What does this fold into?
Amino acid sequence: MTDTERNRKILAALADRTKRALVSKKAARDLLIEEGIYTKKGKLRAEFGGAGSKKKPAAA
It folds into this structure.
């Protein structure tokens, strides 16, 4: 498999996953939870700016 073929397959998989996530709010939330961006309770993880994040305010 060439790099071009591999990249096409990756892009196709991403497009398919995105299409399935955009079906409904529930599907989108489930994808974000599955990817680890949100917790099972629906809270944004600290790594992505949720509670407990150590980010400093932009205008500090």
The chain has one domain: 3-46. DSSP finds two helices and no strands in the chain.
